[in-house]
Q: What sequence folds into this?
């Protein structure tokens, strides 16, 4: 079976093309796609959508009723397409790829920064400046505390990871001693 990201990619690309051409703008579409992904990821929604007693029109209505946002005809058509192709539950992966396409188009990237201790605003700003220089894109930091790192930081930008944590250094030493 194909990987979920492979199946989701054409839907994300098609949706991104529609969003770029729409006067609402990419930011509005990104919010809507995130809302749809959150709804599709909810266990109650997932089980309701999978109910074999429902036909596709009922699935579309059920899913759109779970959303707070008003849907444009293009968004409603996208949901109908996903339901018709039995891909509605792929919305979290589609949303992830849509966000990646949006960031690439805008010349930016999300950076997940995990630190063993809370970082000050100045430390985050310094780290972001260094990351922007390294990656050549505008960085949007997502900072969280992860005490299991013991010390240092672990940064993920897309599929690249920079791990300078004490935990990673200890793991490398253990691997060297075992080898």
A:
């Amino acid at each position: 079976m194909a990987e979920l990201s492979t199946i989701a990619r054409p839907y994300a690309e098609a949706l991104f093309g529609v969003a770029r051409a729409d006067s609402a703008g990419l930011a509005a579409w990104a919010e809507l796609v995130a809302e749809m992904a959150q709804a599709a990821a909810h266990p109650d929604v997932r089980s309701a959508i999978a109910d074999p007693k429902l036909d596709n029109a009922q699935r579309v209505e059920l899913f759109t009723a779970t959303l707070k946002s008003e849907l444009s005809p293009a968004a409603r058509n996208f949901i109908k397409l996903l339901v018709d192709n039995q891909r509605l539950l792929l919305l979290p992966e589609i949303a992830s790829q849509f966000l990646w396409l949006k960031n690439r188009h805008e010349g930016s990237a999300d950076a997940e920064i995990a630190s063993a201790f809370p970082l000050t605003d100045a430390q985050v700003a310094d780290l972001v400046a260094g990351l922007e220089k390294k990656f050549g894109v505008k960085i949007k930091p997502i900072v969280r505390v992860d005490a299991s790192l013991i010390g240092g930081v672990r940064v993920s930008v897309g599929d690249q990871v920079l791990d300078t944590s004490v935990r990673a250094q200890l793991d490398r030493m253990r691997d060297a001693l075992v080898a």
Observations:
- The chain has a mean pLDDT of 94.
- The chain has two domains: 4-103, 109-178.
- Residues 4-21 form the longest helix (18 residues).
- The beta strands are 108-115, 138-145, 153-157, 160-163.
